[in-house]
Design brief:
Elements: H1 4-16, H2 22-26, E1 40-51, E2 54-62, E3 70-73, E4 77-84, E5 92-95, E6 119-125, E7 130-136, E8 147-153, E9 162-171, H3 176-184, H4 198-201, H5 240-247, E10 264-267, E11 277-280, E12 285-292, E13 299-302, E14 308-313, E15 316-323, E16 325-328, E17 333-339, E18 345-353, E19 359-366, H6 388-392, E20 406-415, E21 420-423, E22 435-436, E23 442-449, E24 455-459, E25 464-469, E26 472-473, E27 478-479, E28 481-484, E29 489-495, E30 500-506, H7 509-514, E31 517-522
Parallel strand pairs: 1-4, 3-8, 9-12, 11-19, 20-23, 22-31
Antiparallel strand pairs: 1-2, 4-6, 5-7, 7-8, 9-10, 12-17, 13-16, 13-18, 14-15, 14-17, 18-19, 20-21, 23-29, 24-28, 24-30, 25-26, 25-27, 25-29, 30-31
The structure holds copper (II) ion.
Copper (II) ion binds at residues 421, 455, 506, 508, 511, 516.
Length: 523
């Protein structure tokens, strides 16, 4: 996640400090040794999976009995000992949880990483149930599949209802460091003066926005697309109104998607060549919990011919939405209740890559139906994700209505030359001052995407509510990660009720590592 310099510093800290068991001890609000909850050991280690017929060495986080991640219950303590069995430092973030900040698992922010052979302990109450996940926040380890489900049961889990958990991920045989290097070397247009293109000269919502290279997607790579944007400079900063119009469905430049070309997309570590086949009861009801644990990839989740009832996003309940297709960006989760038809059949649950044909998924097998092979390419390319569903979501338990005490403008900015991503024009370093917040305040974050790429924005340690999209206020979903599409303005509100030092960043791994990261700090 952090800059190389920071990563080196935290690695140094790890090697010189006694880090065993420091996390729980430092946590002021963690109750000491709640005897009622047994401690669960989670081990970070190497494992081997098979991808496209080849074996691949990846990372994982599992219990000693092999269970990946953790299933627990609301109201219990989260009592975990994390053991690092790698030969490099690691640290796991409990995505969507609201622990004391020292237990949040972000190296250099929450605390040092866990040294090879070391361990750390966690102990905090689970305030709410739902579908969450855990992943490494150390370096680029998330790209090496260091992610697992964190499921917290509550009363949404009806007795007798089968639960199906699907963790989506993107996979490359190219090492993550090398992927990042090639992104940073930029495309063929790196360093060149932007060349206006006929497309950009057309009158459009973008006219006058000084983004001449916007439509000039070079064939070899998407890198050149933004070469001329230089968004952070005041001279090229478009008026919010203009951007809002574009985000509202204008016919502007197409979005720039999928920087990284992956070798495979996985659902529960498998491709559609050998998918997980899950037996379900004909006529029964299942709760599908989908976690997008990808580093860089967003999907359209397709239930095929089945109707699903979306009941929660990022763990938090929404007024149910019936549908067969739901967008899911990086780090988000969807809880979908599905009634399985009585007739025996195989029902593929697919995730189709945004803007592409690639797909992955699992098969729900009801009764003695034959399971046929599903190709790993959809018939046609899917569209880019939109905010249409987000706009229609309504929290079942919205934040109490309150006027914001503080509003932070958070411009999402970047320059494709050198692959520099930033917030308010500043790529993250330890010297960037945190966003100021005071305990007890209602805070609004105004995400304004001034780039041509979508950015899934995540705030640590708090749930937030989506309260505005492109100028229109509404009591939207409570969640922890929201997509901000190119040009869009998305406002979220949260209550500053968990003091500490928290990360806030784009959840696209290489955007975050390149600097689209900042912090919120209050005591
Ligand atoms: Cu981003």
């Amino acid at each position: 996640m952090l800059s190389r310099r920071t990563a080196m510093l935290t690695a140094l800290a790890a090697s010189t400090l006694q880090i065993e068991r420091t996390l729980a001890q430092n946590a002021p609000t963690a109750p000491q040794g709640s005897a009622a909850s047994p401690i669960t050991v989670l081990q970070v280690k190497r494992r081997t999976i098979e991808v496209n017929g080849k074996s691949a060495s990846v990372l994982g986080v599992s219990q000693p009995d092999g269970t990946q991640g953790l299933v627990t219950k609301v109201g219990q303590q989260f009592r975990v000992r994390l053991e690092n069995q790698l030969d490099v430092p690691t640290l796991i973030h409990w995505h969507g949880m609201t622990p004391p900040w020292q237990q949040d698992g972000v190296p250099g922010i929450s605390g040092p990483p866990v040294a090879p052979g070391g361990s750390a302990e966690y102990d905090f109450p689970l305030r709410f149930g739902g579908t969450f996940w855990m992943h490494s926040h150390q370096g680029l380890q998330e790209q090496e599949q260091l992610a697992a489900p964190l499921i917290i049961h509550d009363d949404r889990d009806r007795t007798g209802q089968q639960e199906v958990v699907v963790l989506l991920s993107d996979f490359s045989f190219t090492p993550a460091e090398q992927i990042f290097e090639s992104l940073r070397k930029a495309g063929p247009m790196a360093g060149m003066a932007p060349t206006p293109t006929p497309a950009a000269a057309k009158p459009s919502a973008m006219a006058g926005m000084n983004m001449p290279a916007a439509a000039a997607k070079p064939a070899a790579s998407s890198m050149g697309t933004m070469a001329g944007m230089n968004m952070p400079s005041a001279a090229t900063k478009p008026a919010a109104g203009a951007m809002g119009a574009m985000g509202g469905g204008g016919k502007a430049a197409p979005p720039d998607l999928n920087d990284v070309k992956y070798d495979a997309f996985l659902a529960n570590d498998r491709t559609l060549a050998d998918p997980e086949v899950i037996s379900v009861e004909p006529g029964g009801t299942i709760l599908l919990r989908v976690i997008n644990g990808s580093s860089m990839s967003s999907y359209h989740l397709s239930l095929g011919a089945l109707n699903g009832e979306l009941i929660a996003v990022d763990g938090f309940r929404v007024k149910p939405v019936i549908g067969r297709r739901f967008p899911i960006t990086v780090a988000q989760r969807l809880d979908i209740r599905i009634k399985i038809p009585r007739k025996p059949a195989a029902h593929p649950i697919l995730a189709i890559l945004e803007g592409e044909r690639s797909q992955t998924g699992v098969i729900l097998k009801a009764g003695g139906a034959p399971v046929s092979r599903i190709p790993d390419k959809a018939a046609a390319a899917s569209p880019a994700l939109t905010l249409d569903l987000e706009r229609s979501l309504r929290a079942t338990r919205p934040l109490a209505p309150r006027k914001a005490h503080r509003v932070h403008q958070v411009d999402l900015t970047g320059e494709m030359v050198g692959y520099v991503w930033s917030i308010n024009g500043v790529p993250w370093t330890k010297d960037v001052p945190p966003l100021a917040v005071a305990k007890g305040e209602r805070v609004e974050l105004v995400f304004q995407n001034r780039t041509l790429m979508p950015h899934p924005m995540h705030l640590h340690g708090h749930e937030f509510q989506v309260v505005e999209i492109n100028g229109k206020r509404f009591p939207g979903a409570v969640r922890d990660t929201v997509l901000v599409t190119p040009g869009a303005r998305v406002v979220v509100a949260f209550d500053a009720n968990n003091p500490g030092y928290w990360a806030m960043h784009c959840h696209l791994l290489y955007h975050m590592d390149a600097g689209m990261f900042t912090t919120v700090r209050y005591v």
